[in-house]
Write a structure and sequence with these properties.
Layout lengths: L2 H9 L27 H7 L9 H16 L3 H11 L4 H13 L5 H14 L3 H14 L5 H8 L2 H15 L4 H9 L4 H8 L11 H9 L10 H7 L2 H10 L7 H14 L15 H14 L10 H8 L1
Helix pairs in contact: 3-4, 3-5, 3-6, 5-7, 6-7, 7-9, 8-9, 9-10, 9-11, 10-11, 12-13, 12-15, 13-15, 14-16, 16-17
């Protein structure tokens, strides 16, 4: 059974979890339990580790994939999959897409192969390549395939940019914001980086303030991003400027989650010192807690956050 079909069946069950082991879990061997879903790509992309491959190898790989797209056959498919499986999708998809864009591959031929890789493969790296190609060649109706796969954190990192490429920057938030509530951990982080925050009337900044830092990996992971794109300092100053009643529970907890993450000062994640408007956010929050502590009455951590800011 393909991974896509397995996920469709699994997601119909109430007990489905976005980080459950995939059917090819055993193929990872000794590394099977070394990485939680989504962590491998996320951590490499945030490190100095080089994921580049030789230009000639990338070009030859693209030619092999192009051949399967133009003249599909069992032999061409076997050669294509063998080469794709030699390296991780993370190092493959960007140069592959770049080369294929200059090889005059008909869009429908690319889409056919992308759908086969994404929906019929039993190996996760092939699925990831198919998702990336589908983002370049698919139809709007194919978004549901990417969303089904993206609900598992192993694939969210590839689903989010593929959906942005497929649907366009103006429409991607409508797909990604609901998906963000269906994943956790590294999957949610991947989505936050693909949201369109510049779109007029975008719901993304408000989402970051309310639920952006809700993450089983801890609030510090996305705290600076949520504070920056969610315009935390500006929101705290706006609350300070009006005689407001206590914030609704979701917004109160969301803001405190961001500030809790920014005040961990663990030397690993960004802190309040790294947030561009950290001083303004601190001053506004401390003043609010001094003058109107009831504003943050829905979160018991509020008073401790003030202490952590000292």
């Amino acid at each position: 059974m393909s991974i896509y079909k397995w996920l469709r069946l699994s997601q119909a069950e109430d007990a489905y979890e976005s980080n459950c082991p995939l059917p090819d879990h055993a193929d990872l061997g000794e590394n099977a339990n070394a990485w939680v879903p989504g962590a491998y790509e996320a951590l490499l992309m945030r490190s100095d580790y080089s994921i580049s491959r030789f230009a000639l190898l990338n070009y030859l790989l693209a030619r092999t994939v192009r051949k399967q797209m133009l003249t599909p056959s069992p032999a061409n498919q076997a050669r294509e999959e063998a080469k794709l499986l030699k390296t991780g999708a993370l190092a493959t998809v960007d140069p592959l897409i770049s080369h294929l864009s200059r090889m005059n591959v008909p869009r429908d031929a690319m889409r056919t192969e992308a759908l086969r890789l994404a929906c019929e493969s039993s190996k996760r790296e092939l699925v990831k390549v198919g998702m990336a190609l589908l983002g370049q060649s698919g139809e709007p109706s194919d978004a549901e395939i990417l969303l089904t796969l993206g609900r598992h954190e192993e694939f969210t990192f590839f689903a989010a940019p593929a959906l942005r490429a497929l649907l366009g920057a103006d429409a991607v938030n409508d797909a990604l914001l609901p998906l963000a509530d269906q994943v956790d951990g590294w999957g949610k982080t991947a989505i936050l980086y693909e949201l369109n925050y510049s779109l007029e009337g975008s719901a993304a900044p408000e989402y970051l303030l309310r639920r952006g830092c809700a993450n089983r990996l801890g609030p510090a992971l996305n705290a600076n991003l949520c504070a920056t794109k969610g315009q935390l300092a500006e929101r705290l100053e706006a609350i300070l400027a009006v005689d407001s009643s206590p914030l609704d529970a979701e917004l109160c907890v969301g803001i405190c989650e961001i500030l809790w993450g920014l005040t961990e000062f663990d030397g690993i994640h960004d802190s309040l010192n790294d947030y561009k408007h950290g001083i303004a956010a601190r001053n506004a929050f401390v003043k609010l807690m001094k003058e109107r502590p009831e504003v943050f009455s829905a979160d018991a951590r509020a008073a401790e956050i003030v202490e952590r800011m000292k």
